[in-house]
Amino acid sequence: MSNYPNLFQPLDLGFTTLKNRVLMGSMHTMLEDIPEGHERLAAFYAERARGQVGLIVTGGVAPNKSGLALPIGHPLDNEDEVWKHRVVTDAVHAEDGKICMQILHTGRYGYSEHNVSASDTKAPISPFPARGLTGEEVEQTIKDYVKCAELAQQANYDGVEIMGSEGYLINQFIVSKINRRDDEWGGAYENRIKFPLEIVRRTREAVGPNFIIIYRLSMLDLVEGGSTWEEVVHLAKEIEKAGATIINTGIGWHEARVPTIGTIVPRGGFAWVTKRMMGEVSIPLVATNRINTPEVAEQVLADGCSDMVSMARPFLADPQFVTKAAAEKPEEINTCIACNQACLDHTFTLQVSSCIVNPRACHETLLPDPSVAPAAAPTESGSSVAKKIAVVGAGPAGMAAATVAAERGHDVTIFEASDKLGGQFKMATVIPGKEEYRQTIRYYGEMLEKHGVTVRLNTRATAEELTSFDEVVIATGVTPRKLDFPGIDHPKVLDYADVLAAKKKVGKSVAIIGAGGIGFDVAEYLSHDFDHPSVSLSVDEYMKEWGVDMAYARGGSLAESPQPLPSPREVYLLKRSKGKHGKNLGKTTGWIHRSSLAMKQVNMLAQCTYEKVDDAGLHITVAGEPRVLDVESVVICAGQEPLDVLSKKLTAAGVNVHVVGGALNAKELDAKRAIKEAWEVAVAL
């Protein structure tokens, strides 16, 4: 009997049947916007279809030019665009998959001078104001949605998803804080929801009964003045009457100040709101957000939270998620750690998306699949010409290099000086909100064993023994950078490795020198009670900490104020430069880290010069003014140095050496770059 009986139950939609309850949620990858991007999209989606996803939803496609997120995009508004999309649908259908195209009008979220919305307005996340649509333009926009759906049908999509959540145009019509119209499209709630209802109703009339229409319903706006629960239920019922096949859950506007998809969010943390909707409509409902393992997906379904589960980023991390779960091998799934570093951060900085733990994501045509890219063909005598490869360092880069090389057929040995796999990720796993990083260590540990890698822990490789290998990959990572000022050797001075790895005692008052990513992580760690870190926060506790009212007493489901757990320490986060702290953190996650530390009342000081440390504390100058911080501990988070003592010796000895990750460039603790470099080296060996 399957461990996931609900997950693998087919779903009968009447005119078609989905093979399981897994929906691959919409993600904009930027492949939609680059030359020959649809060919790469086809390979991307085909690999997920081959992995047995029940239903795929594409990234958002605008119904007209004013709906584009960026001026460089391409709306589906004419038949010339249909042929590009057929490349995608043909590839998916060749793998016996089903795919819907998301229709997305960004409204005031667009990055364009041509933004439009329900009324004259400006989104806090766009530099451009939006102009309110005229009545005639509203009618034309509805027609554009319908035409876009018809063209999607011509392109052989199995359906469309009409994006009505996350604060985009349809949501802007629904909520009175944005919609200040006094015509038939504004005012009373019945008028404000006429826009989405007309879109769904007219789309159904145009495409006929045997075409999937998913409506993405904002069940939780998480903004002041958002919809009430009664309004959300009323809209869901009307959407069903208008002809929708499935209702998908939308959580939070993009401008909401509650984290909804970051790794800090508990797994399945928002399934409760979809469960609340169950029984209000008779069409299938989809739960979403932070569902990243088959166990969580199964539990959501078993608990009656929804009829389907949506997972987006987990299919960047592992296109074979479903097939591995079906084969009862969940331990082999490369789990999404919800870091956003290579997916959403890329999209919002106009780069093609990828995945920190799977660099092949969205690069399938550029980076070979190790499972189908053998190291070398057999010789005429039938003997193998695979190489003997050493990898030094078992952090993320080293484990990735060893796994990929071994999967291709090489004879691989990995050397690690410590007693455990993981490298810098071992420290990341103790940071509240980054516990998921241990899943990457778990995955690579499984893969090293599966592909026959010889693992030598507690072994510091020497140049002499490495000369017997054909190729050597140096992935030894970094060591904390040392600072030099009076008192740096004082007993109260520690570095981040002392705190996170060695677990040395830290006092009740602490100054952190350095406000980069590692400084923020250490501040997060020290501002939490070690007996109650965020990993143990229940969904209820998380919602309370971030100000979400699960009783839905107010519109948008926001509580009057967040109620975070207090910090057990007084923490100072110091940096030399001017400006706000964390400006170089992730585009889509930096605000979460800043907000979290603000809730913990971490003191952030800029323009600091470090004078000395003594028994009185840390002596600093802040913007020219001397100051003494009476702290019990000082933690140095001032960057890293490469930890590579082997490559020069090996090169001199004539060994083929490849240096990757922090051992090559220690500017930042950049696992995304490190793992990508490791893959690129391993597939070329």
Automatic annotation (TrEMBL):
Cofactor(s) annotated in UniProt: [4Fe-4S] cluster; FMN
Family to which this protein belongs: In the N-terminal section; belongs to the NADH:flavin oxidoreductase/NADH oxidase family.
Domain of life: Bacteria
A Gene Ontology molecular function term of the record: FMN binding
Keywords: Flavoprotein, FMN, Iron, Iron-sulfur, Metal-binding, Oxidoreductase
CDD domains per UniProt: DCR_FMN
Name of the protein described by the UniProt record: NADPH-dependent 2,4-dienoyl-CoA reductase
InterPro entries membership: Aldolase_TIM, FAD/NAD-bd_sf, FAD/NAD-binding_dom, NADH:flavin_oxidoreductase, OxRdtase_FMN_N
PANTHER family: 2,4-DIENOYL-COA REDUCTASE, 2,4-DIENOYL-COA REDUCTASE [(2E)-ENOYL-COA-PRODUCING]
Domain NADH:flavin oxidoreductase/NADH oxidase N-terminal span(s) in chain numbering: 6-331
Domain FAD/NAD(P)-binding residue range list: 388-657
Organism of derivation: Neolewinella aurantiaca
Keyword Lyase in annotation: no
